[in-house]
Design a protein that fits this description.
Strand content of chain A: 15-25%
Oligomer: heterodimer
Number of helices of chain A: 25
Shape of chain A: elongated
Structural class of chain A: alpha+beta
Shape of chain B: globular
Order of helices and strands of chain B: HHHHHHHEEHHHHHHEEHHHHHH
Helix content of chain B: 55-70%
Strand order of the largest sheet of chain B: 1-2
Structural class of chain B: mainly alpha
Number of domains of chain B: 2
Number of helices of chain B: 19
Chain lengths: 692, 563
Amino acid sequence: MSTKQNISLFDKALLLQATKDSVIKLNPVALIKNPVIFIVGLGAVLTTVIVITGGLQGNFSSFNLQIAIWLWFTVLFANFSEAIAEGRGKAQAESLKKNRTQTKARKLVGKQEVSVFAPELKKGDIVICEAGDVIPSDGEVIEGIASVDESAITGESAPVIRESGGDRSAVTGGTKVISDRILISITSEPGNTFIDRMIALVEGAKRQKTPNEIALSILLSGLSIIFLLAVVTLPAFFGYSLSASGLPGSENLTLPVLVALLVCLIPTTIGGLLSAIGISGMDRLLQRNVIATSGRAIEAAGDVDVLLLDKTGTITLGNRMATNFIPADGVTVEELADAAQLSSLSDETPEGRSIVVLAKEKFNIRGRDITNLHATFIPFTAQSRMSGVDLSSKDGKTHQIRKGSSEAIRTFIHNNNGFFPQKIKDIVTELARQGATPLVVAEDDKVLGVVHLKDIVKGGIKQRFSELRKMGIKTVMITGDNPLTAAAIAAEAGVDDFMAEAKPEDKLQRIREEQANGHLVGMIGDGTNDAPALAQADIGIAMNSGTQAAREAGNMVDLDSNPTKLIEVVEVGKQLLMTRGALTTFSIANDVAKYFAIIPAIAVSLYAGSNGVGPLSALNIMHLGSPQSAILSAIIFNALIIVMLIPLALKGVRYRPVSANVALTRNLFIYGLGGIIAPFIGIKLIDLLINL
Amino acid sequence: MTILEIIQILIFFSLLIGLTPILGKYMANVFTGNRHFMLPVFGWLERLAYRFIKVDPNEETNWKSYAFGLLMFNLTGFLFVFLIQLFQAVLPLNPAHLSNVSWHSAFNTAVSFMTNTNWQGYAGETTLSYFVQMVGLTVQNFVSAATGIAVLLALIKGISRKTTDKLGNFWVDLTRSTLYVLLPLSIVLAVLLVGQGVVQNFNSYETIQTLQGAEQVIPSGPAASQIAIKQMGTNGGGFFNANSAHPFENPTPFSNLLEMLAILLIPASLTFTYGKMVGSTRQGWTIFTAMIILLISGLAISLYAEYASNPVFGHLSLMEGKETRFGITNSLIWSTSTTAASNGSVNAMHDSLSPLSGMIAMINIMLGEVVFGGVGAGLYGMVIFVILTVFIAGLMVGRTPEYMGKKIEAFEVKMAIIAVLAPSFVILIFSAWASVSQMGLSSLNNSGPHGFSEILYAFSSAAGNNGSAFAGLNANTVFYNLTLGIGMLIGRFGVIIPVLAIAGSMGRKKITPLSAGTFRTDNWLFIGLLIGVILIVGGLTFFPALSLGPIVEQLLLNNGITF
């Protein structure tokens, strides 16, 4: 399955399923989890009972029936929004489930191989996987090396290497071994594998309310209670006013009207959409190939204000690149480039390739066929710390071209009775000071010059950091480089701070310090060394290519193993919180218009003169057709607005990396002011339609 | 309106704005324990007080102990005032030989003064002896105001400190507020008022012959001292029944100005103290600005309503029920200030205000007494709204809500909602009860929507611990004495306890440092938001009730119908 697939908001099958689900969700046990909508449900039941008993007694009220119908719709629409959000996740989890159930595992018992079903595997079991086998469950490679197709969970078709020991030992159930043979020790209990958790999360089945969601639910329930007070006391006030107007007490407000008023006032819009917003937040993360182990993590992502970023892979491209050739005295730069290119032709390291590319770009030196040159490639070894070629020239002599660190080349030159010039020493020192890596090139006993290898800062990353700064997020670069190098790269990339010569325990220490100062820290990591820091950070994103330990320690897993993902995760978190705030504000602001629709409608007869129109109809500033149409319009608007806002809840409000103040002004204008104005227009339009 | 009246309004607000930072800074010094000029004067008294009540001033407590101390202190005060009323006939300083007070009236009065409400179901000069007024009520005038400040101080400590559960010492906060703030200010005001002719003696009432030959009882007593603290401590309970409309309480335009300023002075200055103590005066001024915008808007509507041509009588500016010595403008500055500030003293009868300005007075109270509000109480009530605003709108910047670096989470929201809910519950449920029961309706002097407004106003006043009344209601009945008394208790402690709980919870949190991603709570945008949330969350609840009271009355008045 590719999690990257985008499911249309109007997928037919999805809508159908969500419609079914929204009826199933009428179950009071499910409904009570959402207090605001539960109140609407109670009101709907009450009104329905009144309509039926009224009908049986022969005074059927079509007005009450319409109220009842729209109350039911309000509940159904709220359920629908949740169902559709869940449905999108479910669809994405469907193919994962197939993987899980059909897999057969080759379990190793003693030295005997036994075939068992994947769900029967327990923690600690050893299984064998060979080319073509699907890995039955999460585990750690304990023997061997293999290439694994992880497209089932990452959507990425290029296979990855998994080997015992080191930082690439974790394998995920449901992925497929393409070559070789590995022994895997199972690390998850049945039903709790990575895929199981992923399915549960995207389906929303085990979704726990997040802390902010709980707080918001309390606010919404509290507001509902306040408005409940306002509504239940109204018949008493009304009764007083009736008797003061000389009207009979029998004209007091009916229960359906009171229920309608209550439902209009309580925050049904945000109440109905709250869980859809939360689920779709998960969904948006998943579309970016990140799996959060809890909704809480996404919320925390919005709050993170310090990001610890590893230099390599996040800020710089993974490898150093050749950027310049600096020849020694008496050597032309072309000669140096030529030699450097020769020595790198068979060098498949990124540094080597970058030298070839640079030589071609600068001096148009083309690639040559090594065998035609009678050259032997000398690969890099830990002992020699050099690489290069041995060229057999026409005179039968063998020329040795080498490139390597200045230490290694110096030894090489000395062994060839050559001389290592002072100028080269100075260049090497100077380049190191600038944060670059000097690579010295030599031929036999002669130093030809220096290749300037440099960390290349990723394109656009500086812009990204300045956006983060605008959002109030501090970036800290972590690197094993010396302070000079680190400072140079930090300045070039535009990070706010850096840690040079950082050891894994320094990371942990730094996180603790930042947290003690009240910051929330986000980081991304892969190695076992990173596990403590990942666990300590408020947002710890483990790369999927990393170790099992790292994946267990973090609260998110990035399936693409892309270190820049951290920034996207922060954006998803912020967008989720913004959406929640925007719809809450919208919902509460709506109340103003609803009051102006309903109060004049219900109080029209009070203190009325001979024409039957009381003074409070002056508050009918929308000029709604009749009291009954006014109440109906308000309740219809209240129901329809939920449906109309479902796309917004699922997609999230528009997000831009701007400061808090700019974001607030913008959202307040749209959802606050809009929330006050929109219902005036909506209710008026519905009223016009009703009175057609 | 005349230019002279506009100048008076300008003078009033200039003085208020000018005095705010001066007194605010002084109070910040007092409450943080810094050196200040009153220390040599009353310092010995402070130390003596701690020795007497056996309190170590350096020992700080958590919110629960703080709340417990506060509740015990208030309970003791209540019992004392309750009992001396029941036995005032046998107690000294009773030259008018007033008899013992009925149990329900004594309950109501004791609760009323203990909760800083100063609702007076009785007529002051004909019910209570000098002893009860001085030893009972005046003492409560001081300590109930000091209690409000103490709660605020605990909240400030909760906001400004981090990762601690220590919120200070209730007894220290109480003593310092009384000794260094309320007492000196009251003495200054009392002396100034005596200079204007306010009575201050222990004489018995005099019976004189009027020019028409009728007999009139001229009351007297230690009025100036009680008036000073009733104004300063947002108490409002008059020495005489007519309160500050009585010439012995408020003799001259200058005394009127002083008394009006005194209503708002401490609540306004506390916003500065707050800013100073939480480490950002901008935060204080932000709250001050939101408050003064609400106050001036209310005043503007009231002025409009009163100066507008009365549709029934056809001429401008009705004076019935207003004090002719002060005129309409000064009556309205007072009525909006006294209702905004939870004071409740009056210099005109709110019952006689036009429906619209009566409604403004009522809304000021219903909003939860947060427009300056009671001493301490107004500001901690406002912080509740600030927390709600931050929570509702703060999410829109893409972070979980925080106020001054403190995360606003489920517990704070729960407590804030309780604090908003408690007074709303009293106003709505008790008003509903009164408007359908014979016990409630029989006390009404007026019919129609105005009668309903009287009921609504009474319970709003009790719940908001305001104490002013739409005078048309006879509240000295068992029903009203009890319901209003219970209403005052819920309105007071139903807010104080959640506020202290919030203080405790916030004190334990870490402080997130300010950054560009922080939701700012010290700019104009936030002021607008805060006002919006106060009006929508605090005000809309009462829209149905208000529309059946003052709104419909004003609309009827426009049609020429009165009640």
